[in-house]
């Protein structure tokens, strides 16, 4: 038997319908699912691909008294049993069975009259009707095979790719028999939501509108609100104006922010609110969801408003589920193809352009060959840090977003804003510290499920369902957040996670200093023999690598599978170094490291006597001049030089705008500007 395949979006058949014999079994593949037509004459009208029927009866509420409703049920039963035998059963589309249970036609008829049919089941795929695409198709009498294939898969470009993605979700859900085995499961509920979204993606905002569907209109308006930082009140006001000036609109269009968010929640873009205790003890989640008091400190879950008596939780964690957003990546043909780039198009020439070129990625592949053999499995990086959401830095408030980055994508895409996924917002007003593991529980549980069991995902590029697994490769943070996520203390004498007990820490007057920087120099470097740094020579070899380190090797022999689980953000560290270096050179208050305490530390260490503070007769101290601080003339020349530098468009900001009017002060540098200056 020959098979003729129609790929999603194709405009022609590999073998045209005119070439097929009248009694041939044809296996077509539409959006990844096989539909078998057994022994039929090749007449397009007999393929039952276009079948219009009045379905207004589905919306009638008084079904027992309405003749139109009973006649509609009869027409449905006749349509569903047209090609069946007298004893065959059909799926029941009532509001309780949801096409998950088969009954005799008589029982289905009673269910539909008494309970009603699911209003969103507008396309009777389970009863012999095809899935509609975005166009009305031309009649069969005036098209040939090639034009017929083009008509089916020609999607209106003006609607964008969103309707196409929803269509693939719609088709995959309706034709997936695994969902039908459990009609009351969450999968069935999600399918019903997507059916409604699919209808919204095809429904016009108003009858004459040709550019926006209801779904694209809501999506566009919310995007504009976020991009331009509209307040909630101004957004509602704009929607009300649009409602008044537009002609008669569809009744499903949401006209408030609350309704718009609720509208898009079914797309998988919503979030869950989880109450947390003020001391970061527990989350009131899962088994603890109904607890009124903290199980650790026994205090109340709520703070009370004396005026209204309303229960207000101390903290609210906002959790954005990850699974649905990862599945959406594969429902766009363009993005789904890019998700395999790291395996199919990454060039292995020894140049580090992408994490896939690094040794950690390759080491992970060797440890988990079953995971690495499928390029569509998702590899994530995790990052978090605190920020002030109010913009007023005098307000002491710190909120911690947790971000995830899919490293499957191309190097110039994986870190871009459209692909960054915010997983949760950890509330303030202070840093969670070691209590961050309490807030990470929902994310860890979801990630464990995706790693161990995976999730059924539809791949739009090849039109098939596969089991997608997910792994978090590493975390990326600055040094304080490194300690928060990893659990390693980043303060004190043993702050270095690589050196551990062998750290070269030393107590100074106001802090702990680490004097082991020269360890990393080559064995024969002249600075190793110099006593100018701390009065001692350095004979110790550089620190061990990850696999040579006796502490880290214990983790390798355990269940930890990644060479570098926690990593430092180089750009963040570069900015700190640049600020301190420039602040010291230009003697900027607050950023200058040439302080009185630094000179006193040199005196305590009995080195660099020429830099010791000199006591005056009145008891005050005089700071000796140093060679690494620029004079006023040198400082002005440095600033004039920066003003003359011209960068390529988009390479860096105009650094001259960061110079003060009087010169000699350089403030307001961004992270990339610091990187350019250090280079």
Outline:
With 679 residues, the chain is an alpha+beta fold. The chain has 5 domains: 1-49 and 133-154, no CATH class; 56-127, no CATH class; 160-270, no CATH class; 320-484, no CATH class; 488-568, no CATH class.
Which structural class best describes the helix and strand composition?
Answer: alpha+beta
Distance between the termini: 65 Å
Number of separate structural domains: 5
Tally of separate helices: 22
Q: Order of strands in the sheet with the most strands?
A: 6-5-9-12-11-10-15-18
Subunit arrangement of the protein = single chain
**What does the average pLDDT come to?**
75
Q: Beta-strand percentage?
A: 5-15%
- Strand count: 20
Q: Report on the biggest sheet.
A: 8 strands, mixed
* 3D shape: elongated
* Low-pLDDT segments, ≥5 res: 1-51, 130-159, 174-184, 550-560
Radius of gyration: 33 Å
Which bin fits the share of residues in helices?
Answer: 25-40%
């Amino acid at each position: 038997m020959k098979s003729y395949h129609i790929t999603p979006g194709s405009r022609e058949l590999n073998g045209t319908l005119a070439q097929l014999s009248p009694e041939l079994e044809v296996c077509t593949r539409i959006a990844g699912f096989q539909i078998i037509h057994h022994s039929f004459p090749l007449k397009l009208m007999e393929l039952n691909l276009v079948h219009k029927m009045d379905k207004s009866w589905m919306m009638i509420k008084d079904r027992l008294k309405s003749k139109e409703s009973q006649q509609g049920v009869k027409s449905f039963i006749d349509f569903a049993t047209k090609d069946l035998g007298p004893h065959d059963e059909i799926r029941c589309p009532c509001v309780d069975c949801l096409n998950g249970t088969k009954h005799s036609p008589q029982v289905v008829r009673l269910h539909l009259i008494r309970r009603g049919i699911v209003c969103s089941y507008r396309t009777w795929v389970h009863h012999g009707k095809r899935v509609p695409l975005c166009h009305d198709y031309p009649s069969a009498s005036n098209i040939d095979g090639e034009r017929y294939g083009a008509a089916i898969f020609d999607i209106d470009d003006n609607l964008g790719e969103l309707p196409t993605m929803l269509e693939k979700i719609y088709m995959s859900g309706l034709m997936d028999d695994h969902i039908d085995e459990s009609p009351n499961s969450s999968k069935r509920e999600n399918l019903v939501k997507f059916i409604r979204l699919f209808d919204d993606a095809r429904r016009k905002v108003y009858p004459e509108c040709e550019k926006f569907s209801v779904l694209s209109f809501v999506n566009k308006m919310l995007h504009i609100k976020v991009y331009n930082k509209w307040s909630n009140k101004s957004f509602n006001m704009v929607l009300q104006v649009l409602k008044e000036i537009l002609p008669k609109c569809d009744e499903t269009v949401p006209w408030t922010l609350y309704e718009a968010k609720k509208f898009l929640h079914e797309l998988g873009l919503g979030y869950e609110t989880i109450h947390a205790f003020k001391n970061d003890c527990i989350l009131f989640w899962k088994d603890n969801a109904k607890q009124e008091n903290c199980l650790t400190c026994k205090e109340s879950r709520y703070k009370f408003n004396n005026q209204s008596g309303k229960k207000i939780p101390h903290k609210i964690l906002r959790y954005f589920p990850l699974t649905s957003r990862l599945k959406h990546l594969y429902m766009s043909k363009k993005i789904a193809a890019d998700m395999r780039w790291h395996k199919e198009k990454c060039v292995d020439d020894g140049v580090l352009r992408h994490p896939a070129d690094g040794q950690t990625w390759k080491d992970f592949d060797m440890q988990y060959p079953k995971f690495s053999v499928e390029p569509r499995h998702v590899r994530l990086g995790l990052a978090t840090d605190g920020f002030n959401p109010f913009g007023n830095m005098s307000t002491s408030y710190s909120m911690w977003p947790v971000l995830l980055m899919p490293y499957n994508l191309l190097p110039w895409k994986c870190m871009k804003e459209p692909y960054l996924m915010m997983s949760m917002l950890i509330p303030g007003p202070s840093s969670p510290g070691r209590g961050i593991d309490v807030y990470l529980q929902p994310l860890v549980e979801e990630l464990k499920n995706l790693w161990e069991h995976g999730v059924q995902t539809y791949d739009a590029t090849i039109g098939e369902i596969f089991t997608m697994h997910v792994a978090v490769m590493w975390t990326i943070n600055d040094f304080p957040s490194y300690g928060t996520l990893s659990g390693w203390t980043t303060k004190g004498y043993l702050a270095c996670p690589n050196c551990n007990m062998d750290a070269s820490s030393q107590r100074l007057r106001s802090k702990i200093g680490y004097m082991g920087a020269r360890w990393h120099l080559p064995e024969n470097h002249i600075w190793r023999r110099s006593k100018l740094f701390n009065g001692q020579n350095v004979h110790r070899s550089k620190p061990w690598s990850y696999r040579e380190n006796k502490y880290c090797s214990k983790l390798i022999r355990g269940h930890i599978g990644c060479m570098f689980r926690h990593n430092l953000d180089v750009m963040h560290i570069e900015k700190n170094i640049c600020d301190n270096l420039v602040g010291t050179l230009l003697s900027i208050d607050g950023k200058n490291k040439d302080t009185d305490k630094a000179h006193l530390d040199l005196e305590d260490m009995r080195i660099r006597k020429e830099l010791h503070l000199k006591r005056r007769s009145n008891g005050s101290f005089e700071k000796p001049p140093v060679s690494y601080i620029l004079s006023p003339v040198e400082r002005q020349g440095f600033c004039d030089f920066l003003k003359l530098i011209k960068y390529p468009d988009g390479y860096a900001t105009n650094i001259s705008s960061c110079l003060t009017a009087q010169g000699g002060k350089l403030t307001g540098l961004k992270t990339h500007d610091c990187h350019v200056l250090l280079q």
